[in-house]
Amino acid sequence: MMIATDTPRCPLPMPMGWFQVLYSHELAVGDAIPVEYFGQELVVFRTEAGEPKVVDAFCPHMGAHLGYGIREQTGKGPRIVGDSIECPFHGWRWNGEGQCTHIPYAKNMPPRVAKGETILGAWDVREVNQQILVWYHPKKEAPTWEPEVIPEAAANHPDWGEMIIHTWDINTHMQEMGENAVDAAHFHYVHGTDDVPEAAFQNFDGHIREGKFITRQPTPRGVVDGAIETRSQGAGLSVVRFTGIYDTLLLANVTPVGPEKTYASYAFIQPRATQETLGKTVGQAIIGNICQQMAEDQIIWDRKQYFERPLLCDGDGPFAKFRRWFSQFLVEPTA
């Protein structure tokens, strides 16, 4: 039983940085999809030229939601005309830079429209690794780094197969989830591993965090030595490489829906050459095990209380280093 309370379990602001809002295949040319992240409603659309754009959801004219169509568009998004999304209420059009590009019945444009000003909230967008990412900063500051290209995540890669996607809605702050990356001991007690994985290294450098755990994986043919290598870009984007039994790449992305609600989207990629053989047995078993671990972690995450000064012992991981690194992304919004 969860007790309703107005007191936050983790009184930290949502982190800034690059975050995933959709996969590329979810947004066809001419599509518009309403989403909710960062405590607000947004619309993601793809122009006729194929470029993804993200804007605030509500038309500055009279407040209609831009993510829903009417008449022949009912049940879909509104019309996309050229590089602009058309408001279903009065036909005003807005491009991905937040400028009004057309008012069908106006004889004299409003001054801000005539000047080409940015009126509708528009977001910095990147499409990499078959994902659509946006830059979130509570003070509207410009991006300070670019998301990395992951070669194995390229569409139609000759050596790596298609993405296998799993998602979760998790009721916790993103920092609480991220701390698992430095918490070797929880693997034994939460996930039932035979041993506590050995941390080979944990590095924190600017917006990048890298770590590696050495694993010993039991199989019918004996124990296989393996590794879990993680590279995080800011708070929202991580690539995890599992080696040992069967190579698996995981794009483990998390996006804040609100201060204590997070959407986790995991895309697994495995070798193309064996996807119809070992991929259907060993590969699926590995993915199933990771998803099971997420379900186990979620039992903890959905209910735990954040402690600013946890009582730690010498067997715990580098929580203090992780929190110092993560704190650079925690920017209080402007009042």
Automatic annotation (TrEMBL):
- Its Enzyme Commission number(s) read 1.14.19.21
Give residue ranges for domain Rieske.
19-111
Pathway, per UniProt?
Steroid hormone biosynthesis; dafachronic acid biosynthesis; Hormone biosynthesis
Keywords for this entry? 2Fe-2S, Dioxygenase, Iron, Iron-sulfur, Membrane, Metal-binding, Oxidoreductase, Transmembrane, Transmembrane helix
Q: Which GO terms describe its molecular function?
A: dioxygenase activity
- The domain of life for this entry's organism is Bacteria
What Gene3D superfamilies has UniProt attached to this entry? Naphthalene 1,2-dioxygenase Alpha Subunit, Chain A, domain 1, Rieske [2Fe-2S] iron-sulphur domain
* InterPro entries recorded: Cholesterol_7-desaturase, KshA-like_C, Rieske_2Fe-2S, Rieske_2Fe-2S_sf
Which metal ions or organic cofactors does this protein require, according to UniProt? Fe cation
**Localization per Swiss-Prot or TrEMBL:** Membrane
Q: Which reaction does it catalyse?
A: cholesterol + NADH + O2 + H(+) = 7-dehydrocholesterol + NAD(+) + 2 H2O; cholesterol + NADPH + O2 + H(+) = 7-dehydrocholesterol + NADP(+) + 2 H2O
Which protein family is named in the record?
Belongs to the cholesterol 7-desaturase family.
Please identify the protein, giving its name as recorded.
cholesterol 7-desaturase
Tell me the organism. Answer: Candidatus Paraluminiphilus aquimaris
